[in-house]
Design goal:
29 strands, elongated, alpha/beta, single chain, six-stranded antiparallel beta sheet, eight-stranded parallel beta barrel
Length: 627
């Protein structure tokens, strides 16, 4: 229980500047003691409200019982309610500027009532005892540019479920149960990080968590905020990093949410041409308003500092950067220079990334940005946006288009697999095969592949090998590592029963081998952003649809040579040019890790190089050599 909390003049000043980075410790609901009475201090920002009171289980939802007092001109209202207790539900009752009566959930609340309920719940998140000191001490040493990152993207509500019962129709795992099962699986597979979807509180399961109403509340679908902290804590103890999806681009119009908060546009732009997404039916934040910027930046810090999260993947960055994103003429307003860049959002990103990464070394800010906007991962002082990494959507689209083709037609599309290296160093990239690619009739990864079922598995293995050895960090959505057949649905768990079949088990084992190989050899990750770390052996073997390249180690020892055959044609007479007259040790083929076989380079020109060696390359063959 904290001591007496008040929203001071300093709080008002910092909030008005947009730089009150732990504002969540003041606004919201905080159990405390005043005049030796235990109770709860409530504070809410409602600048144009005529009257505000807190209603809840402690006062019979009486709108007159606990009126709140306005503190200064900034428009924060506060009250101490003696006898209010942890676990009780509450809302803010607001008489708006035009006399409207509004019942709002707490924007800074740390726990929410389980949907379809929409109230906030009093909790004390400061009482969790962390046990991840070893991880947190080492965290500042992590460098995403030179360290391995293989991310497993997970939707917690549908990774695994309990059988449905009347009491528990959805069968969700609690955060604590999930912690143990997920950590064990992820560790066994060899991923370095999990990226969790849909953690912030949201009313509608079908939004997958991308329409948030409780930015400071881990969703109550899977337990309490303390249970969520346990999940992060446990994953850290198992040496697994945690990244969350974060959605500062827009928010839904639900009556209990942020929209029209005090009868006026508080969080959103007033002009619908600036404040609404016509496609999504959502509101757009007013990034120029200091208190709104503060709400969002402090929220990022809340997850990273209060909940020990190691990074945020920022959703829909392009929709924030472009004023005309998803809009036709007349639906948007140009900036002061007459163009379509959202200057306030650009400033917001620079501020956000500088503060989060500056205060928390070793954490990452990842942009899901789908256009060619320059310097997304450039430093803010060099006019970049300051992100650590950017999802490589261009690579993903080209790769998937190529993989879907009948192998006969791949020779005409060879450049789809080589083009990414033309811009590989313009940003710091993550190669992604995300949830977005396995929904809405797009097919699962396995079912995107051409041919009969056996061919599909072979295609996917060679495709995953190419991805794992190509420069860039890695992300794979859950279920795709074992060849989930059905598209993903948030309504059901993954089809784990498929692991009863040999070909699905083999694929899972193969992905596990790839991940272990990736983490073992710095050649595959240590020079992702250095042009000296990659070299094509042959980028032009289109007729045979074979790609060969080398990845070089930062230490110059244990370099890797990769050969991938994307057709069902055996090449018994295959020969590969090599950089040096050395021994090349085969460490992995299309069947997984293999007994090491040594091949000696000889003076025989191939691939425009003086040295080469012969290697019989099977149909859909993969060969990874160490030299």
């Amino acid at each position: 229980m904290g001591e007496k909390v008040k929203f001071t003049e300093l709080d008002q000043y910092l909030f008005g500047q947009g730089t009150h980075y732990d504002i969540y410790k003041k606004l919201g609901a905080h159990p405390t003691t005043e005049k030796r009475k235990k109770g709860v201090y409530f504070a809410v920002w409602a600048p144009n409200a005529q009257y505000v009171s807190v209603v809840g289980e402690f006062n019979g939802w009486d709108t007159q019982a606990n009126p709140m007092e306005k503190v200064g001109p900034i428009g924060v209202f506060e009250v101490f309610v003696p006898g209010a207790k942890i676990g009780q539900l509450y809302k803010f009752y607001i008489v708006g500027m035009h006399g409207e009566e509004l019942y709002k959930a707490d924007p800074y609340g740390n726990e929410s009532e389980l949907r379809p309920g929409t109230a906030s719940r009093i909790t004390d998140i400061s009482d969790y005892k962390w046990t991840d000191d070893a991880w947190m001490k080492k965290r500042p040493d992590f460098n995403e540019a030179t360290d391995a990152m293989a991310i497993y993207e997970v939707h917690p509500g549908s990774w695994m479920k309990h059988p449905a019962t009347e009491e528990d129709p959805k069968g969700f795992y609690n955060y604590r149960e999930l912690a143990v099962k997920l950590a064990k699986y992820v560790k066994e597979m060899g991923y370095t990080h999990v990226e969790l979807m849909g953690i912030a509180e949201h009313p509608f399961d079908g939004s997958w968590g991308y329409q948030v109403t409780g930015y400071y509340a881990p969703t109550s679908r899977y337990g309490t905020p303390q249970d969520f902290k346990y999940l992060v804590d446990y994953l850290h103890r198992q040496k697994i990093g945690v990244i969350l999806d974060w959605v500062p681009a827009h928010f839904p119009k639900d009556a209990h949410g942020l929209a029209n908060f005090d009868g006026t546009a508080v969080y959103e732009h007033e002009d619908p041409r600036q404040g609404e997404h016509p496609d999504w039916g959502t509101k757009i934040y007013n990034y120029g308003r200091p208190e709104v910027k503060n709400f969002l930046i402090a929220n990022a810090l809340f997850w990273v500092e209060e909940c020990h999260v190691d990074g945020l993947r920022v959703d829909a960055v392009a929709s924030m950067l472009y004023l005309d994103y998803g809009k036709s003429d007349g639906q948007w307003v140009a900036n002061k220079y007459g163009d379509n860049k959202n200057l306030e959002a650009i400033e917001f990103f620079k501020h956000l990334n500088t503060v989060v990464l500056g205060r928390n070394h070793g954490t990452v800010m990842i942009a899901e940005e789908s256009t060619a906007w320059p310097k997304v991962t450039g430093k803010a002082e060099d006019d970049g946006l300051g992100f650590s990494l950017k999802w490589n959507m261009g690579w993903m689209n080209d790769f998937l288009e190529y993989m879907k083709l009948d192998p006969y037609f791949r020779k005409y599309n060879h450049n789809k697999m080589t083009f990414s290296m033309a811009y590989a160093y313009s940003e710091k990239y993550v190669l992604v095969l995300s949830h977005d690619e396995v929904v809405h009739l797009k097919c699962s990864m396995l079912n995107k592949m051409p041919g009969e079922i056996d061919d599909k598995f072979k295609n996917l293995k060679v495709g995953y090998t190419f991805m794992m050895c190509h420069p860039g960090k890695k992300l794979l959505f859950m279920g795709q590592e074992f060849g989930q057949l059905r598209e993903w649905s948030e309504e059901r768990e993954l089809d784990w029963f498929l692991l009863g079949e040999e070909n699905h088990r083999n694929l899972k084992d193969y992905v596990q081998s790839l991940l272990k190989l990736y983490k073992k050899y710095p050649a595959l990750y240590g020079m992702d952003n250095n042009p000296e770390g990659f070299e094509w052996i042959n980028a032009d073997d289109g007729d045979r649809s074979i790609f060969s390249f080398v990845r070089k180690s930062p230490t110059k020892r244990n370099n890797i040579l990769v050969v991938c055959n994307f057709t069902p044609v055996d090449r018994p007479d295959y020969r590969v040019g090599v950089p040096k007259k050395k021994q090349y040790t085969l460490i992995m083929d299309e069947n997984g890790m293999t007994e090491k076989k040594v091949f000696k380079a000889e003076k025989s020109e191939c691939d425009n190089r003086p040295f080469s060696f012969a290697y019989p390359l099977p149909a859909y063959g993969v060969a990874i050599f160490l030299y």
